[in-house]
Specification:
The complex is a heterotrimer of chains A (about 400), B (about 375) and C (about 160). Chain A is mostly helical and about 400 residues long. Chain A has 16 helices and no strands. In chain A, helix 7 runs parallel beside helix 14, helix 10 runs parallel beside helix 16 and helix 14 packs across helix 15. The longest helix of chain A is centred in the middle third of the chain and has 32 residues. By secondary structure, chain B is an alpha+beta fold. Chain B has one domain: Cytochrome-c3 Hydrogenase, chain B (Orthogonal Bundle), CATH 1.10.645. A 3-stranded antiparallel beta sheet of chain B has the order 1-2-3, sandwiched between helices. In chain B, strands 6-7-8 form a 3-stranded antiparallel beta sheet, with helices on one face. In chain B, strands 4-5 form a two-stranded antiparallel ribbon. Chain C has a domain of about 110 residues: Alpha-Beta Plaits (2-Layer Sandwich). Helices cover about 20% and strands about 20% of the residues of chain C. The interface between B and C is large, with 43 and 38 residues.
């Protein structure tokens, strides 16, 4: 063990430190040896930590990026199982971990890793292996566009909202590719159903986000979040919020819209031939997409990260050196997380209440009713802008 | 009925013609087999044209165990444990009918308290079976809450049956001559309390499942079986009552003490899947009233079992008796030749008749209606195969 | 809109259940209580006494080796076989007693109904699993042991729903 650490670990750290640009400290260039000796001196380590927090790598891997999204996805899976169990008068996971089954996800992950991946004969192997990876990559791309606090976003794209919809348009393609590559009858039916469902609900999805753009005047997600200054958009656009909610349930294939994986009719739909870690990757992608769409709802309609400032401006009063703690950022991240978790619970609720819907009722709802409903709010939003109530120079602006 | 025969002929001809066409090209053959989460231990093959089913061929026999032949090698009392296995969670009703038939053969008189206890056990078992059926119906439609709640509430009745008979599901309680043991003390209060709690739970089922607009959209106007077709096909039980025929064996040919109990036969007129799923629910409500009346009228003390010789036998003859079980009329036809073993036992079950309606209703419906039609026909594969 | 009303009622019903107690019995930390001592049969009256049907208990001071329990079981599960025992009893001249194979027994208790000497009863004990099939065959000495069963939970119906303790 010690040999592995000294022969591989330490050189690895040194190589990384040679390539990561480090700031100069007290006028001298920071070499890796000086870096290690700085660990014990707070006045010298804080600038380094602050610098590391503001690099791109931290943003992608830790804070609003992969670790945060994966952590929320993991918490979502556990909360879903416990919440549904309480509604159904039973206990969910109980034995994995000392307190009420809290390590259940790790146990599930280990189980999935240790299973054999069975590929049906006649299946198209390159597509079969590549599609789950592409699925997770696209979900992560959607989650990468979501701003969590002012200035904290992995990719600050000026047309952020359209980029989100462009990424969401890939998912029916993955479902169809995977079901075709499985070379089996039940995935074939499931893939076609997934295609019908996701394409039918993309139009109400985009149309219900349109009034938000009209009212806020920009497509940048951070700009939309900051422009909801006096009142959140959900008070002006309730019908759009409702249409967005239903469309995101359909996009995520959650009950009542889980036809592509309808268990009692077509065994498991387009996921029938998955086994082992491929199934694990698909579930990870699904739950990261759940986090991304819930966060998108929060940004578009619930004001993003706005909320009363409850964190004090200084932790140690009278400290004049460099500071890592930024009260505005922590407050914004806290309120964003609370609102996203609340929205995730609302997305989990229909699973305990509704049965599955049928495909012709689904298509009827998606193409007729929801498009009509979303047009109503477009006219309301246009009326509010031209009537001078919202927008620049209006009656209600902050 | 020439009109109905013509319809059957046309359907069968259409099916055979479709099979004759090159079915690799246009129609997809799906085997909804035993390894399917939506079929139980039963296999049927369907051919799909897009989303519509054009041909259905049920294939029973997966769990055939030869119950009728095995009965010829055991005497009348030893037959009870294996004859209750075809429908293990409705076991009291399938042995009730057997006991009635053997009592008629051997001229055994059952004491009055025994008859009441038999009827109470039969009603409790009917609730157990219907709750299990409702749970599976919920999960077939994707409603996991409707799977968990009836399975939990079933524990109320299984608890009562365990106190009464000694085992949770494999009761072996009815024997020719009465029941095997008397009610334990405190049973009546416990039963009344749990039945009262269960009636409150039925309101919750209505709220979340039967009045849910999504459930109604999926089952109303789906798989309509008209009254004439139902009578011609010979379906039984709740399927028949959902098509407008108010036939309940407990009212039409009362056995034991059912002619002293006042209850209404529940039936609905529409004949679609919704009616077929609603009639067992209404039956459960009615069963609660029946249990209360039975507990009220039961004689306070008395024998529960007629004294018999260890190997009862009767004069050569035959007898036929029917009982209303959870799925329909369950009848036994027993021929005896004077020895302690029966010569022939024929069991006629409601499930096998309801299976005949399956290809008739599935042809022309969508694939998504397949679970809701199949399970609403109240078909239990093990009983149909015996 | 009636469908909106239906959905709202469904959501209300589902959320109400977040306040009802969970129904699960946490076995094996809590076990169910049984009333009484197990299924017994009174040959004089010809009727059984209600009780739970678990493992058998054989009273060696009453069993005469008449084989009626084995004959009763022959048509059902063939789980009872008679074996020679070393004990010497006055009422058991042939010195044979039943041994029960729990891999075959279906717990129907018709053997208890068949015994005319008050020697074979059933008890509340249902935890009979073992690692090999041979260990499931209980000899007459093993069957004479009275089991220790201490379940205390029972189904309670309270204001916030029914639960198992």
């Amino acid at each position: 063990m010690l040999t592995i650490v000294t022969l591989i670990g330490l050189p690895l750290i040194f190589i990384i430190l040679f390539y990561v640009p480090l700031p100069p400290v007290n006028g001298e260039v920071l070499t890796p040896y000086l870096f290690f000796s700085m660990m014990v001196d707070p006045s010298r380590t804080i600038p380094i930590i602050k610098f590391l927090i503001h690099t791109d790598l931290f943003r992608v891997a830790v804070f609003p990026g992969f670790s945060y999204a994966a952590l929320l996805a993991a918490v979502t899976i556990y909360v879903e199982r416990k919440f549904l169990a309480k509604m159904q008068l039973r206990i969910g996971p109980l034995y994995a971990g000392k307190i009420e089954g809290i390590l259940q996800l790790i146990a599930d992950g280990l189980k999935l890793i240790s299973k054999e991946i069975i590929i049906p004969s006649g299946a198209d192997k390159p597509i079969f292996w590549a599609t789950p990876v592409a699925f997770v990559a696209t979900s992560a791309a959607v989650a990468a566009l979501i701003p969590v606090a002012p200035g904290w976003v992995v990719a600050n794209v000026n047309v952020g909202l359209i980029a989100v919809f462009a990424f969401l348009g890939f998912f029916p393609l993955f479902a169809l590719l995977f079901s075709w590559a499985s070379n089996s009858k039940y995935p074939f039916i499931g893939g076609l159903r997934a295609l019908h469902q996701m394409i039918a609900f993309e139009i109400p999805f985009i149309l219900s986000a349109l009034p938000v753009v009209i009212l806020s005047g920009s497509l940048n997600l951070s700009g939309i979040a900051t422009s909801q200054h006096p009142y959140w958009f959900i008070f002006f656009l309730p019908i759009s919020a409702f249409v967005f909610y239903i469309s995101s349930l359909a996009e995520l294939e959650r009950i009542p819209f889980d036809l592509p994986e309808a268990e009692s009719e077509i065994v498991a739909g387009w996921l029938t031939e998955t086994s082992g870690m491929i199934f694990g990757l698909l579930q990870l992608g699904t739950y990261v997409k759940l986090y991304a769409l819930a966060a998108l709802f929060v940004i578009l309609f619930l004001g993003g990260w706005s909320g009363p400032q409850i964190f004090p401006t200084e932790i140690l009063p009278g400290y004049t050196g460099e500071k890592i703690y930024n009260a505005v950022t922590v407050n914004a991240a806290f309120w964003f997380t609370i609102k996203t978790l609340g929205m995730i619970m609302l997305l989990l609720l229909p699973r305990g209440i509704n049965p599955r819907i049928r495909i012709d009722i689904l298509l009827h709802t998606g193409w007729y009713k929801l498009i009509v409903l979303s047009f109503i709010n477009i006219f309301v939003a246009l009326g509010l802008i031209y009537g001078g109530i919202l927008g620049p120079g209006g009656l209600v602006t902050g | 009925m020439p009109d109905f025969q013509q319809k059957v002929d046309e359907t069968m001809k259409m099916g055979l013609e479709i099979v004759k066409e090159s079915d690799e090209d246009r129609f997809m053959t799906l085997s909804v087999g035993p390894q399917h989460p939506g079929s139980g231990h039963f296999r049927f093959t369907i051919k799909l044209d897009g989303d519509y089913i054009v041909f259905c061929d049920p294939d029973p026999g997966y769990v055939h165990r030869g119950e009728e032949k095995m009965s010829e090698y055991r005497n009348f009392i030893q037959n009870i444990p294996h004859l209750e296995r075809p429908v293990i969670h409705d076991s009291t009703n399938i042995t009730y009918s057997y006991s009635l038939a053997v009592e008629e053969l051997c001229s055994i008189e059952v004491p009055r308290r025994g008859q009441f206890i038999r009827a109470i056990a039969s009603e409790l078992n009917r609730q157990v079976y219907t709750l299990y059926w409702l749970a599976i119906y919920g999960i077939f439609l994707g409603h996991s809450t409707m799977f968990m709640w009836p399975t939990g509430d079933r524990e109320l009745f299984i608890d009562l049956l365990e106190a009464l008979t000694g085992a949770r599901v494999t009761h072996a309680f009815n024997i020719p001559g009465g029941v095997r043991n008397d009610m334990p003390e405190g049973f009546k209060d416990r039963c009344l309390r749990q039945v009262a709690y269960f009636e409150k739970r039925l309101k919750e089922y209505e709220d979340i499942f039967y009045n849910n607009p999504l459930f109604r959209q999926r089952t109303e106007e789906v798989g309509i079986l008209t009254k004439d077709d139902a009578i011609s096909l010979g379906v039984a039980g709740s399927v028949l009552r959902a098509s407008g025929v108010p036939l309940d064996i407990r009212k039409a040919e009362p056995y034991d003490v059912y002619n002293e109990i006042d209850f209404k036969v529940q039936y609905m007129k529409s004949g679609d899947s919704f009616a077929r799923s609603m009639v067992p629910f209404l039956d459960m409500r009615e069963s609660c009233h029946i249990i209360r009346q039975l507990l009220d009228k039961i004689p306070q003390a008395g024998e529960v079992r007629a004294k018999l010789q260890p190997n009862p036998k009767g004069p050569p003859g035959e007898s036929y008796k029917r009982v209303e079980s959870g799925r329909g009329a369950l009848g036994y036809y027993i021929i005896s030749d004077g020895t302690p073993r029966p010569y022939r036992v024929k069991i006629s079950v409601g499930s096998f008749r309801n299976m005949l309606a399956l290809p008739f209703l599935l042809v022309g419906s969508k694939l998504a209606d397949m679970p809701s039609i199949y399970w609403s026909l109240n078909y239990w594969p093990v009983e149909a195969d015996r | 809109m009636t469908s909106a009303g239906g959905f709202i009622k469904a959501i209300e019903s589902g959320s109400k259940h977040l306040l009802i107690k969970r129904f699960t019995l946490r076995y094996p930390e809590e076990k169910l209580k049984f009333v009484g001592d197990g299924y017994q049969f009174d040959p004089k009256k010809g009727v059984g006494i209600a009780g739970s049907r678990g493992r058998h208990i054989l009273f060696h001071d009453k069993c005469t080796g008449c084989q009626l329990c084995a004959i009763a079981c022959e048509g059902i599960a063939e789980a009872i076989g008679m074996v020679k025992v070393e004990e010497q009893w006055k009422h058991n001249k042939k010195a044979i007693m039943p041994q029960i194979d729990y891999g075959k027994c279906v717990f129907c208790a018709l053997c208890v109904d068949a015994c005319p000497f008050y020697a074979l009863y059933m008890t509340n004990d249902y935890e009979l699993s073992s690692f090999t099939k041979e260990h499931l065959i209980y000899t007459p000495a093993q069957l004479a042991v009275k089991p220790k069963y201490d379940g205390t939970m029972e189904l309670r119906i309270g204001k916030r729903g029914a639960d198992h303790g």
